[in-house]
Amino acid sequence: MIKFFRKIRQKLLAENSFSKYLLYAIGEILLVMIGILLALQVNQWNDEKKDRQIENTALLNLRKEFEKNIMNINRLAKTRLKREDEYRTYLTVLDNDTIPPEEKVKRQLPYLPNGYLNPTNTALKSLMNTGYIDKIKNDSLKTLLIKWTKDITMISLNEQRVLKASQEQKEYLKKHIYQPIVKQKRREFDMWPGTSLSKNSEDKNKNSRASLIQDIVFFNTLSNSLSELYRLNSYTNYMRNKAEIILKLIDKELKTRKVAIEN
Questions:
Q1: Residue 42 falls inside a structural domain
Q2: Is 127 exposed, middle or buried (0-12, 13-18, 19+ CB in 10 A)?
Q3: Is residue 131 part of a domain?
Q4: What is the pTM of this model?
């Protein structure tokens, strides 16, 4: 092709036809420019295709993560709500003067849950660290994903507050109620033999519990535990709703792109 154009130029120069040569030169320049623009457009199409492939893979990975996170949140929420109900019931009984003291003493003391969310965020962290988060075209989804990392920090702080309340409750009870001791059994690796309480200690605890149900510090300690648990449950529900919205947006994007979803 280059030799062909060179022969044309040489022929025009030999004919001493400057006007024809000038028109030819302009035409050749235009052809070169068109070729360059076409090449750039093809490169742009290829880059966009690669970006869409990266985004599709990221969306599929995010979908798996948020499905798992929603399952974990639902599991924790069930336990945490149950504990909240137990605290409310127990405190309602303590605050009810029509219930005999001996009935209050028999009530099982509520305790705070120890589970943590610890969401899976490998795919999201990878997107954030590599900057590929910007390749997600859906602005609403992108904004929710970026905020999700901050939400994780917030729920972690709430979980720490519940842990602190749990420790305060345990420390208070240690000062007023005999704690069970570990059973003596054959030692086995990673095997906890359990605990037990002597009959004498159980009898003393009944008297201690009778005093506790009249103690305002005891009531307020449990009330504080309930407050922290309520706050955590509210944020857990918020996280679940946010995760479900993110998952719906991901599914919508994948459906629009006609990307197969593995079940």
A1: yes
A2: buried
A3: yes
A4: 0.75
